[in-house]
Amino acid sequence: xxxxxxxxxxxxxxxxxxxxxxxxxxxxxxxxxxxxxxxxxxxxxxxxxxxxxxxxxxxxxxxxxxxxxxxxxxxxxxxxxxxxxxxxxxxxxxxxxxxxxxxxxxxxxxxxxxx
Length: 115
Known about the structure:
Layout: H1 5-32, H2 39-49, H3 52-74, H4 82-105
Helix pairs in contact: 1-4, 2-3, 2-4, 3-4
């Protein structure tokens, strides 16, 4: 017995939303943590893809994370000028960079068919 055409159309329409949910949730990790978990999405992508380029991107975000942590620890509370600008720049790189990387390169796991 074949499923109704409306059920098939509804399943096809729900698939992009189901595939995008892990991508969006993983991209929200560095934004929600304000950069504290900056390397996590890139690390997960590098582990899944096992490509040199993704490992280099993960290393780059780890360096940005270390620079942001050092800047946050060494910056006085009433910072202004160039010090404040560097803090904001590192914060933006640590939050928006990994989120963009995750949104562009994340691919959901595919189930392999067994023959």
